Amino acid sequence: MAASDPTKPVAERLATLQRTLWRHPHRREILRDLQALIATVDEPGLDALRGKYAERMQKASAASRYKYLDVVFHILQKLLLARELGLHKSPPRRVLDVGTGGGQLPFVCRFYGHQAVGIDVKDAFYDGLSACLDIERTTVRVEARTPLPDLGGRFDVITACDIAFNEKREGKARGIYWSPDDWQFFLNDLVAHQLRTPGTIYLKLNKEARGRLLGFERRAYNREVLALAARNGADISRWRGTIRLAFATPQAIVMDAG
Ligand SMILES: C[S@@+](CC[C@H](N)C(=O)[O-])C[C@H]1O[C@@H](n2cnc3c(N)ncnc32)[C@H](O)[C@@H]1O
């Protein structure tokens, strides 16, 4: 699929992205839902946000947070994820989205009749973006080896996409990430205190910085985390950095399963 382009208006992006879906077997349904979702976006609000951050966007890399101003592209990604998780045709579910950013996943979930809670740290840019989708972000900082607070009951589905909360803050040092033990704690906390069973946890990792080689920054998905999840029965994709864990009953995540 094409990359995001946050500089273009909604209508133009919709037209471009429609074309990229031409081979998808459910193209019509997806486009119908995408158009219905986009029709509810506060476009003047989005244009104002684009204007407010224009200068910073120009100086920032294509991978920066400003890419989310291409709401059509990012809503489409979450629409495809919701379909992958069966949320487009399931009865009402409770969904927790950890590190929700602009709240695109809760936005799609609400469209399909679900109740979604998006947690994230306080951030003026993401607050502005979620306001354009009329989505409320719940302020919760995810920290290593710290249980999440009670978020009003258990969830049927827990997602975390393009995860950034696993980067540790140690002074000015960057590139220090959660260990497999930290991930084990996080997953066990979700299973013990947040997930209802049967239930699903879906994670999409971000590539972690692995230093520089020949002047290029190397980045890679954390193989140890993917392996830990696979040993515990997850469907993983090493290529996409995704983990999907389905629980029929509560089950602890262990280091040396199987
Ligand atoms: C790359 S964005 C992904 C946003 C969204 N999940 C998506 O797929 O569009 C990473 C998000 O993680 C959030 N984040 C970073 N550190 C966090 C933390 N410690 N606790 C909660 N959220 C965090 C950021 O504020 C940002 O919204």
Percentage of β-strand residues: 15-25%
CATH topology of the domain at 72-247: Rossmann fold
What's the count of strands? 9
Largest sheet: 7 strands, mixed
Quote the average pLDDT.
Answer: 94
How many helices?
A: 9
**Bound small-molecule species:** S-adenosylmethionine
CATH architecture title of the domain at 72-247: 3-Layer(aba) Sandwich
* Unreliable stretches covering 5 or more consecutive residues: none
Write down the CATH class of the domain at 72-247.
Alpha Beta
Structural category is alpha/beta
Radius of gyration: 18 Å
Straight-line distance between termini: 36 Å
In what order do the strands lie side by side in the largest sheet?
A: 3-2-1-4-5-9-8
The CATH superfamily of the domain at 72-247 is known as: Vaccinia Virus protein VP39
Shape: globular
What is the helical fraction, as a range of percent?
A: 25-40%
- Helix and strand sequence: HHHHHEHEHEEHEEEHEE
How does this structure look, described?
With 258 residues, the protein is an alpha/beta fold. The chain has a domain at 72-247: Rossmann fold, CATH 3.40.50.150. The protein has nine helices and nine strands. The strands form two sheets. The protein has a seven-stranded mixed β-sheet, with helices on both faces. Strand 4, helix 8 and strand 5 form a beta-alpha-beta unit. It is globular, with a radius of gyration of 18 Å. The mean pLDDT is 94. The chain binds S-adenosylmethionine. S-adenosylmethionine binds at residues 74, 99-101, 104, 120-121, 123, 126, 141-142, 161-162, 164-165. S-adenosylmethionine (SAM) binds at residues 74, 99-101, 104, 120-121, 123, 126, 141-142, 161-162, 164-165.
